[in-house]
Amino acid sequence: MFPDEIVCCGASSVYVPYADPGLPLAWQIRERTKDYLRDHGGVPKLIVLQNHGLIALGSTPKAVRACLLMAEKAAAIFAGAAAMGGPTFLLPQHVERITNRPDEAYRQGSLGFDG
Q1: DSSP character string of 56-103
Q2: What is the pLDDT of residues 81-91, one digit of tens each?
Q3: Confidence (pTM)
């Protein structure tokens, strides 16, 4: 995870393990998202569906597009890092610090993203 990813995609996302398409997948999305809401007290910006794709959430089309583009960039960076021995992840306290920085909140607002 890197600062731009945190700004555009949030400090964490919902991960939904593989489920058959249709109602089984919808139920898994619902349950994992309910867990996220309970644990984080807010709506996720990104839902990752194993073997299906991504769902981005935002209050504007610009916020949704930014989340999807940044998730794509993050995936490419992760794949490159994995090919070179593995990624080095930010520590939780670094993610928390970036998430709560006033200048990052300002940047989200100035870019038209939801906070």
Answers
A1: E--SSHHHHHHHHHHHHHHHHHHHHHHHTT---PPPHHHHHHHHT-HH
A2: 999 998 888 88
A3: 0.83
